[in-house]
Structures are given as C-alpha cells and as structure tokens.
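Q: Structure tokens for this one, please.
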Amino acid sequence: MDGKETSEAAGSGREDARAVKPESMTGKTVLITGATAGIGRVTARELAAAGAHLLLVARNRQKAEETRAWLKEVTGSKSVELIIADLSSLAQVRSAAEQAGSFGALNVLVNNVGAIFQRRTESVDGIEMTFALNHLAPFLLTTLLREALRRGGPSRVVTVSSDAHLRATMNFDDLEGRRRYRAWAAYGQSKLANLLFSYELAKRLEGSGTTANALHPGFVASEFGKKNGGFLRVAMSIAQRLGAVSVEEGGRTSIYLASSKEVQGVTGKYFVECREQKSSPVSEDAESMRRLWEISERMTGLVADGAVAERVLV
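A: Here is the predicted structure, written as tokens:
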C-alpha cells in the first residue's frame, strides 16, 4: 500500500461504502481494539484521517508503536494514544477500561479484536480462549466504559461479528467446549454471542444516548487465523486466495457505523456492506440474550462487584 493512501482507498468500490469525510470525526474520541492489523488498522487510519482522537488497545507494544507511527505518516494525525493490554485477560480488560476512562468522554467504541484457535486453549483466567477474547472482552470493556460513553453522548458501540453466526448455536451446557471442542464451532458461537450481546446492550441502553450495532465485515484477506499451525493455517490461506475481500473493503462497514450521520440514533441492528440485514433467528432470541448476559456478568465478576451492570444498564 502506498503510504499516502487515506480516505480515498476506503471510499472506492460500492457507493454505499463511501469514505468518511475528513472533517466528520473532528473532536470525537474513538477507542478501537485490535487496531494493529487487518480491518482494525484500516478503521484506525480512516478515522484518524477524519480527525478523530484515537485510543488504540493492543497486546503487542512494538506493533502498537509501529501503528501509531504509521498513522502519523499516512494521516498526519498526532492524536493517537496507546493502551497496552491483552484482552483475553479480565484483569487487563479492566486496566484498559480504566486507562480509557481517564481520557474523559468516549464517543465511539469499536470492538474489533477477535481470533480463532485451532486447539482448545485457556486464558489466564482459565476460560476457553475463543469465548474469553471474542465475547467476554468486548462485554466487559463496553460495560466498564458505559460512563465514558454516556459523557460522550450521543455515542456509539460498534461490534465486529461475522456471518459465521448464521450456522452457530449457543451451547449453554458447554460454552467453553470442555466436553468437545471444535475451532469453527467455537468461533461461530462467539460471533453469535457478539450479536446477542449487541442486541441486549441496545435494549438496556435505550434512551441513554448510546447506540449499539454489530456487523459482518466480509471474509477478509488478512492475517486472521494464520497464527494457528497445520490444517487451519493452510485452509485459511487457500480460502482467502480464492474468495476473500481486501482489508480496505472489510473495514468499510466499521468505518460507516462509527462515523456516518445516516446511522445516528440507529441501534440494535446488524449491518453487512453498510446496509442493515437480518441476522439469524437464533441471534434474535430474547431469552438467549438475557441468559448470555447473566452468564457473562458472573464470568467477568460484575455481579460479584455489586451487580454494577444491572444497576446501570437495566
């Protein structure tokens, strides 16, 4: 990529996936997770070019510093702050939220980080890694940042899901795959959880000035899944060569939901290619939304902290 590419790159292609106008995010504070690669990096670039003050949450400090330097080079932005945290750790999610909250009002939160794990792995908290990183991290981070989002209202929560949710179900009897673990099933379940969370969040935040929406970015040609070894790495590489969209195209819907005036006030929806679409019937089940929320509260310690989420978000 030419280092001078900014908004024009993300504006090419479909008319409804147009670029963010450079002035449209001036004065806005935006937190993005997983912004050092793939669609998160494209999202960061476009919102920085649009004038946003960025808070980037990243696990690897070197990659984070490189991303900040790159953003300055390609956009001229000097308003990029780094928060170093491994979001698979609940303690580090709390630390990230505390650091983000210290910057004051938050206008947009983009829950972008996600991964797939070929073999069952547990986080430092003893939680299956896919569920910990892809669902519990955005659940806890968003909940802890509710006051910053309220101060930044009207504000937005944008969560990257996937059409992998279409073939998924919530295995509430074995959410962490302790009895049987399959990588794609665990990933699909986590993406379904993203939708159940987003829809329930939208209901609980109704009237607060904060909206919550989710999206499918497309099957993107990125480094996603390639840190695994063996079959999964090979399969992802082949599939991406055959039918994946670029990271430029993959980032458009995140950019659109984070910035467009067209979706101001729109909440509890699922978007594909910058257009609202129906998600799976399972993702719209109110009882599953409620049940997952309560389980997530317990797993993240929010209930033990005095039912914080219920007191503020109900």
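A few notes: The domain at 7-219+251-313 is CATH 3.40.50.720 (Rossmann fold). The chain has a mean pLDDT of 86.
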